[in-house]
From TrEMBL:
Keywords assigned: Cell membrane, Membrane, Transmembrane, Transmembrane helix
The protein's name: Na+/H+ antiporter NhaC family protein
Transmembrane annotation, as ranges: 6-24, 31-51, 71-95, 148-170, 198-217, 259-279, 299-319, 340-361, 381-403, 488-506
Keyword Transmembrane helix: yes
Subcellular location(s) per record: Cell membrane
Species of origin: Zhenhengia yiwuensis
Length: 515
C-alpha cells in the first residue's frame, strides 16, 4: 500500500476520532470509526470500494499488531505479575507494616506517596493497592479521604509516565517507534527517555505531593475536607459501585504475604529490564557503550523478557512457600491478562489509526504544511499542544487514547516546522494527556482512586481539580519557556520555582480565609 496525497481529506480520520470521542466520551468506538473513515477515503481514491476499505483496515491492523506483538506480551506478563503479587498479600503486608510503624500524619502521607512511587509499573495496580492498604492508616491519622484519593491519583499516572519500565512507557514507546522525522526514524525508547525531564506535569505533580506531605498547605475544597477529618466530621463512603471495580480488586488475598513479597518481584522486574535492554541492544556482544546498548535496544522485546523473568521469580517466591497454591498462581495469570484486554484494544486501534494517517493519507505532511503556512510562532507549539492534549484527555477520560491520536500528528508537525522542539512537544503531549486524565471525572484512574480511598467520587474530583490546575498553569508557562529556550534545564528549573512560589502564595491566601 502506497501513501496518497489527498489534501484536506487527510485530516478527516483524526478529526472524526476526536469529535466522536468528545461527543460520546468513549475512545474505542471513536478510534474504530476514525480508522474506517480513513481507509474508506484511501479505497475510494485508489479505485476500490467498501470491501477494499475493510480489507485495508484489517491488513494494516494485522501488520501493526504483528510489529508490536512484544509490547502485547509485556502487558500480559505485567498484568499477570500484578495479579499474583496482589493475591500473595505483599501489598496488604506493606499496609499492616505501615500501620504499626507510622506515628504521625506527615508519616502517613509520606508512606502513601512512597508506596505510590514503589508501585510504578501500572496505574491500576497503583490505585487499587494503595487505597486498600493505606486507608486504615490515613483514618488513624485524620487524613481526609479526599486527600488520600489525591495522593493516590497523583502518584499513579504521573509516576507511570516517567518510569521507563511500566505499562505506560511500553505504550508510548510503541507509538513513537519508527515515526519519521525528515527521513530519520525515531528510536522509541531513546525518544521516551529524552521526554522525561521535559514532562513537566508529571514532575511538578510529584513535587507538589512531596510539598503537601511536608507542609500543611491546603486550599480550595481540600481545606474543607481536611478540617472535617480533623474534627471527626468527615463522611466516609465508597465512591464507586462494585460494578466499577475490576476482577483484580475482588481476588482472594493470602494472609501469609510479607512486605518483601511486594518488593522482590518489582525489583526483579527492574533488574531484568535493565539487563534485557542491554542484551537485546547488543551490549554484551562487545564494541559499544552502555548508552549505545540502551539506545540500540528493542524496548518491547526487552520488556517482554523482563516481565517473564519477574513472573518466574514471583512463582519461585510464592508457590514453594505456599503463600498461594500452584492453581491460584495460574488463575492469577489468567485474571491479570484479562485485566489488560482494554489496553490491548486501545493500543491496537491507536497503532492502526497512526498507520492510516502516516502510511496511507500523508496526514502529517499536510498538517505540517498548514502550520508552516499559518506563520504560527514555533515557540508556542509545545504550550498549545499541552492544552490540546489536556482538553482531549479530559473529555475522553483516557491518556492512552490521546497518545494514539496526537503523537503521530505532533511528530509530523514538528518535523515540518520546528524539528528542534520535537522532544519538548512530544513531552507536552504526554504531560497534557496525563493532566487531562488526572482531573477528568470519567477517567478510569480517577474513579479507581476515589474507589480505593473510599472517597465520594465527586468530592475527589472537586478537591483535586484546583491542585491539578495549579500544576497545569505552571506547566503551560514552562512550555512557553521551552519553546523560546529549547533548553530542558532552564525549562524544568523555572517551572519548579514557579510552582513553589505559587504554593507559598496560595497557602498565605488560604490561611487568611480560614482566620
Amino acid at each position: 500500500m502506497e501513501a496518497i496525497d489527498i489534501g484536506v481529506l487527510s485530516i478527516l480520520p483524526p478529526i472524526i476520532a476526536i469529535a466522536l470521542a468528545l461527543m460520546t466520551k468513549e475512545v474505542i468506538s471513536s478510534l474504530i470509526v476514525g480508522i474506517l473513515s480513513g481507509t474508506l477515503i484511501y479505497a475510494f481514491n485508489t479505485g476500490g470500494g467498501i470491501v477494499k476499505a475493510v480489507d485495508v483496515t484489517f491488513t494494516l491492523m494485522a501488520e501493526k499488531l504483528g510489529a508490536n506483538a512484544s509490547i502485547i506480551l509485556f502487558l500480559g506478563f505485567l498484568g499477570a505479575l500484578v495479579a499474583v503479587i496482589t493475591m500473595a498479600g505483599g501489598s496488604k503486608a506493606y499496609g499492616d507494616w505501615a500501620g504499626n510503624k507510622i506515628k504521625s500524619k506527615r508519616g502517613a502521607q509520606f508512606g502513601t506517596a512512597l508506596l505510590g512511587g514503589l508501585i510504578f509499573i501500572d496505574d491500576y495496580f497503583n490505585c487499587l493497592t494503595i487505597g486498600t492498604v493505606m486507608r486504615p492508616v490515613a483514618d488513624k491519622h485524620q487524613i481526609s479521604r479526599a486527600k488520600l484519593a489525591y495522593i493516590i491519583d497523583a502518584t499513579a499516572a504521573p509516576i507511570c509516565i516517567i518510569a521507563p519500565i511500566s505499562s505506560w512507557a511500553a505504550s508510548v514507546v510503541s507509538q513513537m517507534s519508527g515515526l519519521d522525522v525528515n527521513g530519520v526514524p525515531l528510536n522509541g525508547m531513546e525518544t521516551f527517555m529524552a521526554t522525561i525531564p521535559y514532562n513537566l506535569y508529571a514532575i511538578l505533580t510529584l513535587i507538589m505531593v512531596i510539598v503537601l506531605c511536608v507542609t500543611n498547605i491546603e486550599f480550595g475544597p481540600m481545606a474543607k475536607f481536611e478540617k472535617a477529618a480533623r474534627e471527626g466530621k468527615e463522611h466516609k463512603g465508597m465512591a464507586a459501585s462494585e460494578g466499577e471495580e475490576d476482577e483484580l480488586s475482588r481476588v482472594k488475598i493470602s494472609s501469609k504475604g510479607k512486605v518483601y513479597d511486594l518488593i522482590i518481584p518489582i525489583l526483579a522486574l527492574i533488574i531484568f529490564a535493565v539487563f534485557s535492554m542491554l542484551y537485546v541492544g547488543g551490549y554484551f556482544e562487545g564494541g559499544m557503550t552502555i548508552a549505545e546498548g540502551f539506545g540500540n535496544t528493542d524496548a518491547g522485546s526487552a520488556l517482554a523478557l523482563a516481565g517473564f523473568g519477574a513472573l518466574i521469580v514471583a512463582f519461585l517466591l510464592f508457590v514453594p512457600r505456599k503463600v498461594i497454591t500452584f492453581k491460584e498462581f495460574m488463575d492469577g495469570i489468567g485474571i491479570g491478562v484479562k485485566s489488560m484486554v482494554g489496553a490491548f484494544i486501545i493500543l491496537t486501534l491507536a497503532w492502526t489509526i497512526s498507520g492510516v494517517c502516516r502510511e496511507l493519507l500523508n496526514t502529517g505532511e499536510f498538517v505540517g504544511g498548514l502550520v508552516a503556512a499559518s506563520n504560527m510562532p514555533p515557540a508556542i507549539i509545545p504550550a498549545i499542544v499541552f492544552l490540546v492534549a489536556g482538553g482531549l484527555a479530559f473529555a475522553m477520560g483516557t491518556s492512552w487514547g490521546t497518545f494514539g491520536i496526537l503523537i503521530p500528528i505532533v511528530t509530523m508537525i514538528c518535523a515540518a516546522v520546528a524539528p528542534e522542539l520535537i522532544t519538548a512537544t512530544l513531552a507536552a503531549t504526554l504531560a497534557g494527556a496525563v493532566f487531562g486524565d488526572h482531573c477528568s471525572p470519567i477517567s478510569d484512574t480517577t474513579i479507581l482512586s476515589s474507589t480505593g480511598a473510599g472517597c465520594n467520587h465527586i468530592d475527589h474530583v472537586s478537591s483535586q481539580i484546583p491542585y491539578t490546575l495549579v500544576v497545569a498553569g505552571c506547566c503551560f508557562i514552562g512550555y512557553l519557556i521551552a519553546g523560546v529556550t529549547a533548553n530542558v534545564w532552564i525549562t524544568l528549573g523555572s517551572s519548579i520555582v514557579l510552582l513553589l512560589g505559587t504554593l507559598i502564595v496560595l497557602n498565605k491566601i488560604s490561611k487568611k480565609h480560614q482566620e
